[in-house]
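Q: Please design a sequence for this.
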């Protein structure tokens, strides 16, 4: 079959679909990936054909958008900001996607763009979404974000409470998206979004670990766990030698905030440098936020882009933002986490890390001052390492990409 992958956003949205694309190719399917030019090089390095879609932005514009997302107080505000950020090119994007999908048998798209389903339906092409976090899926045993949990109540009452709130949240999200993008949708003949949360597609692949994370009772069978979809870029041999020399005495703490960007970065990093003890080695991955320090210190090494698997094998623990992809990479590495959530589902992943016993959480407001004690805590307590290694062992037995391909093949055969 011919499959078109579609995604927008940060690297955390792109890499899982590259992994899926590679697995589909290995299963002898034809694949192309439609996204912004920022990711063209990485996609083509993976030998997946690239298809252009707007926005034709340079990286600093994406970084500014991430900074705006970091200012949003909750998930609904975050969703609205995402759609506001895309208004300037949304019409062109819809036109481009509609022109592309005509040549494919199946469209697989990131969870946050369900309006593309209307375009697929017009041309009678099956449409599937990918979601990177199961907390956004209606389930009887999950209370939506911002809603009080009914601790101590009988299970039937909890299930009814959660179900009613999921219906309300679905309506709120539908209204929020339509209030912003409705005029653009109407101009392209797309009806108002309906059931953004409860029914984004006929099939929704949930690419998280089924053994570690599958605790939810989904209210709809269209949502299917497959396991993680992970893609890693090639090893940087020159950097590898630098890392070996820096870590010659043993693994060190590593900070990476991935594609997250935020305000007052210089002040935050100044506070970190002031509170990190001299002589204690640590690695900073600069990321989209541009993590850096103003004073040269031989015990603090700053690096740029490199694959998680290459970097984390030098880690005694990883300090990260709680993005779905980064959390998965640290779980695969088998080292403890210190999670500093900033936005969206990162708070949920921080709670999952705590539930798994593999790490702790710090607030983004005070992490520079509290980081060293947190590192001491997770590296001196053997239970964190034991639980982290257990999770890594479990994940080593999972085959998320193969499961996803099998799920898509079955979906197409049974239509």
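A: Design:
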């Amino acid at each position: 079959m011919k499959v078109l992958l579609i995604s927008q956003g940060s690297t955390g949205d792109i890499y899982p679909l590259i992994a899926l694309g590679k697995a589909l190719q290995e299963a002898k399917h034809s694949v192309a990936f439609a996204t912004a030019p920022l990711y063209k090089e990485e996609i083509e390095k993976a030998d997946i054909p690239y298809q252009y879609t707007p926005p034709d932005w340079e990286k600093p514009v994406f970084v500014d958008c991430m900074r705006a997302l970091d200012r949003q107080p909750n998930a609904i505000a975050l969703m609205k900001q995402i759609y506001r950020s895309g208004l300037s090119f949304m019409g062109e994007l819809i036109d481009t996607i509609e022109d592309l999908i005509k040549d494919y048998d199946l469209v697989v798209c990131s969870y946050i763009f369900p309006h593309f389903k209307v375009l697929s339906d017009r041309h009678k092409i099956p449409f599937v979404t990918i979601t990177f976090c199961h907390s956004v899926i209606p389930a009887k045993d999950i209370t939506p974000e911002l809603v009080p949990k009914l601790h101590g109540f009988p299970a039937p009452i909890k299930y009814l409470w959660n179900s009613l709130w999921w219906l309300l949240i679905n309506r709120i999200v539908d209204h929020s998206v339509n209030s912003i993008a409705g005029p653009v949708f109407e101009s392209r003949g797309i009806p108002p979004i309906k059931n953004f949360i409860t029914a984004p597609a006929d099939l929704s692949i949930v690419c998280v670990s089924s053994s570690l994370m599958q605790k939810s009772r989904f209210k709809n069978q269209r949502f299917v766990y497959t396991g993680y979809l992970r893609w890693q870029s090639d090893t940087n041999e020159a950097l590898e030698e630098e890392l070996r020399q820096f870590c010659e005495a043993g693994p060190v703490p590593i900070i990476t905030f991935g594609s997250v960007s935020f305000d007052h970065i210089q002040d935050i990093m100044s506070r970190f440098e002031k509170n990190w003890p001299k002589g204690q080695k640590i690695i900073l991955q600069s990321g989209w936020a541009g993590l850096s320090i103003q004073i040269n210190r031989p015990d603090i090494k700053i690096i740029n882009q490199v694959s998680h698997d290459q970097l984390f094998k030098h880690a005694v623990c990883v300090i990260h933002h709680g993005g779905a992809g980064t959390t998965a990479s640290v779980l695969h590495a088998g080292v403890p986490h210190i999670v500093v959530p900033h936005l969206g589902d990162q708070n949920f992943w921080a709670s999952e890390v705590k539930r798994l016993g593999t790490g702790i959480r710090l607030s983004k407001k005070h992490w520079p001052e509290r980081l060293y004690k947190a590192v001491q805590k997770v590296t001196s307590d053997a239970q964190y390492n034991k639980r982290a290694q257990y999770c890594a062992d479990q994940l080593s037995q999972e085959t998320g990409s193969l499961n996803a391909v099998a799920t898509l093949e079955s979906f197409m055969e049974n239509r």
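Q: Thanks. Anything notable?
A: Residues 76 and 172 are 8 Å apart (CA to CA). The chain has a mean pLDDT of 94.
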